[in-house]
Amino acid sequence: MGIASSLFSGVSGLTTNGNAMSVIGNNIANSNTIGFKSSRSIFADLLSSTISGSGGQSQIGRGSGMSVVDNIFSQGTFENTELNSDLAIEGPGFFMVTDPSTGELRFTRAGAFRFDADGYLINPEGYNVQGYILDDQGNTVGDLTNIKANTRSFSPANQTAMVTLNTNLNANSPYVGPFDINNPATTSNYAASIRVFDSLGQTHLLTTYFTKLDPATNPLQWGWYATMDAGELGGTPGTLQQVGTGTLQFDTSGNLVTPTVGTTTAGALTWGNSAAQNQQINIDFQTTQYSSASVVVAQEQDGFGTGTLVKLNIDNDGYIIGNFSNGQPRKLAQIALSKFSNPGGLSKAGNNLFEASDSSGPPIIGTVGSGVGKIFTNSLEQSNVDLAQEFVKMITTQRGFQANSKIITTTDEMLNDLINLKR
């Protein structure tokens, strides 16, 4: 092989350690890059040459080379953020994004996402986050696609089916006589009003009057009378129309005995608009009769009007949730995740992105709960670079480089001595 071959062994060592230093430098440069996965250099010796000696044949190495640069996919720590669209993955999964110009699928652990003006969920480079669109019932519609929240969407109205009245009726109220729909103020002891919704989301004022019945013939009984402006029901505006009636029976402790739920009269709620007709509303009377002033403690109803989208949120299951002006949230889409049989085989594509290769295998696609990882909102995964370890590697790599440079200078001196044998 000769003395000169050691020069090339030294050169191979310089090249290998120089490349290793580039890997270390890249790791350190990305120590603050979200979702970054560090790399490591694996060296291998080169083919050896065979020499013959008195003891037989032997092998002499011919230097080192770079075997592979591995990607290290260890879990990074999480950084809390103020943005709900900042997402981090715990586990083996990757977010999927597509290049808006080519449609090529890429994979990333960097979840610094945001919604653009058209409602698309994108990363800082404008790549579209992938997931599934959901219908009004929360069911998946179609295949994997760009996640888009329709910022001009509406939440449909829901007609009122139940009204809850939590009231106290004064046990000391006087008997004022039979209820008269044409003179409710003087033939009732108390009234409670609440707005209810029809199927189109239009509101109507439902007023329930309470009249203490004759204690001589109906002890501890009250009558209730649900009324509404007749103009709401296609009649004469400004006049009341009775839409439901019943009695409430109390015990001597002031507790309601029966019934606890009343219902509007069938066919009474026939609206004057094009909403669904013959609506019926149940009234849950959570009512007491104590010796204190009549008062509404609380009242509520389960209907709501049409709402427009006012805000978008993402939950820990990856659902894109639209909050509407009528107070009703609705799931609009769900973020998809993927994992690989061999993530170390992924190829880096820049911009915190990876692409699949023959070595990594095809992506296994799923959502949270299917083994592809968990999503954390208001969080970003930090780089998994260990600076202390990188600096130690830097020292050893530098020493390796220096040692290999010594091989070259020492071999040069030996060659110089050889040349000087004959002067």
TrEMBL record:
Residue ranges constituting the Flagellar hook protein FlgE/F/G-like D1 domain according to the UniProt record: 88-134
Domain Flagellar basal-body/hook protein C-terminal: 379-421
GO CC aspect terms: bacterial-type flagellum basal body; bacterial-type flagellum hook; cytosol
Subcellular localization(s) per the UniProt record: Bacterial flagellum basal body
Signal peptide interval: none
Any one Gene Ontology BP term: bacterial-type flagellum-dependent swarming motility
Family: Belongs to the flagella basal body rod proteins family.
Name the UniProt record assigns to this protein: Flagellar hook protein FlgE
Organism of origin: Geothermobacter hydrogeniphilus
